[in-house]
Design a protein that fits this description.
Helix content: 25-40%
Organism: Biomphalaria glabrata (Bloodfluke planorb)
Subcellular location: Nucleus
Keywords: DNA damage, DNA recombination, DNA repair, Endonuclease, Exonuclease, Hydrolase, Nuclease, Nucleus
Structural class: alpha/beta
Number of strands: 17
Strand order of the largest sheet: 5-6-7-8-9-17
Strand content: 15-25%
Radius of gyration: 25 Å
Protein name: Protein artemis
InterPro entries: DRMBL, RibonucZ/Hydroxyglut_hydro
Length: 417
């Protein structure tokens, strides 16, 4: 659950993932993704009135996030004030003046965060420094080294601050199975159950409205079926090329159901989508709940080294699978140790930490952790710079028509330079 206040130390008048209180004095707003803890105040009358009464004040987000927002009737009045920013490009954004400051411009790069459809990080670059806001993210170790937005022409960018998702920045979640590992174990469980008879069905109980699409898509692909979701979700997914075609709104056309994003009562014989009266069929239901928090909570009382399990079954017939939407301790450490920012600030208080100072000290320790990918990158850049200097020396030293050895030529004929 995000506790981010909404504002950066570097750039005033910018509010991110928080749209109430003092943030209503800002003149540029950003939404990283569509989960309720990052949308506080977004649907409020005061926020809408602030947009309506201000010139050139917009809500910036990714294209997919806009699609998800506009599917919510309460968010549709915001449409004329929403601006889509391209992912992977430095978008020049105007931050209009307020009663307390002049207008200015800042470059904002959206970086895929891997948390849920449309989720992004925001990299802000301008006269007041460089700041990264991760929002909620789910990256693997080594992924930061592949992000071009973190690289300048000849080095890594110097980051002043990183505002980072610390949901699982705890020892209990040192290592969390990847989504692909989760899917690899889930597919045979589902396949074996469905093969027993036509009355055997699977119900996937999702704690959040969005974020499980990777699992749904893989199940649909591997089992050659569609996943049943509500009508309004099919309408959304059909607008997203990567998800279109894998879902149905007809409960009788699928035996995999993700039609309720949350349900308290488990049933082994009925579907949560309440089939019509003419469907009197008795079902054999396999209930599956994807999450990570339950698994990490079990580790709190365990003596293991924070390696989270993948599956578990309780006596009531609920099959839990460890499906993560947040990075683990190890993955957070990898991001911070690679970027080496001047400061790093947590946006979530982990469930097993008693105060912010604990997670802050943990993040601080990551700055001194050796990162192999960072060292490799710096070494490569240094080598290329040295070779570039030698090339210049060679060019200036050779006179016209002067012959030189093939060996010397070979030293500089590197297509990668």
């Amino acid at each position: 659950m995000s506790s981010f206040c909404g504002q950066l130390n570097e750039y005033k008048n910018i509010a991110i993932d928080r749209f109430d209180g003092k943030n209503l004095q800002c003149s540029a707003f950003f939404l990283s993704h569509c989960h309720s803890d990052h949308m506080v105040g977004l649907k409020s009358i005061p926020f809408l009135k602030h947009l309506q009464s201000s010139k050139d004040v917009y809500l910036y987000c990714s294209k997919v996030t806009k699609i998800l927002l506009l599917a919510d009737e309460e968010c549709r009045p915001l449409e004329k004030y929403m601006q889509i920013l391209e992912i992977g490009l430095a978008n020049l954004v105007k931050v209009p003046s307020t009663n307390h400051s002049e207008e200015y411009y800042v470059n904002v790069t959206l970086i895929p965060a891997g948390h849920c459809p449309g989720s992004v990080m925001f990299l802000f670059e301008g006269k007041d420094g460089t700041a990264l806001y991760t929002g909620d993210f789910c990256w693997e170790v080594g992924q930061a080294s592949k992000v071009l937005a973190f690289q300048s022409e000849k080095s890594l960018k110097k980051i002043d601050s990183v505002y980072v998702d610390t949901t699982f920045c705890i020892a209990e979640a040192y290592n969390i199975p990847s989504r692909s590992e989760c899917v690899d174990l889930t597919i045979p469980i589902v396949s074996d159950w469905l093969s027993l008879s036509s009355s055997h069905v699977v119900v996937i109980i999702c704690p959040a409205k969005y974020g499980y699409e990777y699992l749904f898509k893989k199940l649909a692909q591997q089992l050659d079926t569609k996943v049943h979701v509500p009508d309004w979700k099919v309408d959304i997914y059909d607008q997203i090329p990567d998800l279109a075609g894998y879902f149905t709104s007809d409960p009788l056309l699928s035996r995999i159901h993700a039609c309720k994003f949350y349900t308290q009562k488990l049933s082994r014989s009925t579907l949560p989508c309440s089939p019509t009266a003419h469907d009197s069929k008795q079902y054999q239901v396999l209930n599956i709940k994807p999450s990570t928090m339950w698994f990490t909570a079990q580790k709190k009382s365990s003596t293991s080294q924070g390696h989270v399990g993948v599956t578990a079954v309780n006596p009531k017939g609920l099959n839990r699978i460890c499906y993560t939407m947040h990075s683990s301790y190890r993955e957070i450490r990898d991001l911070i140790s690679f970027l080496q920012p001047k400061s790093v600030l947590p946006s979530v208080l982990p469930f097993s930490d008693e105060c912010w100072d604990i997670v802050q000290e943990r993040l601080k320790s990551f700055l001194s952790f050796p990162n192999k990918e960072r060292n490799k990158f710096i070494q490569t850049v240094t080598t290329n710079n040295v070779l570039g200097t030698l090339r210049k020396i060679k060019s200036s030293a050779l006179k016209p028509n002067q012959h030189h050895s093939d060996d010397f030529d070979d030293l500089f004929n590197n297509d990668e330079l």
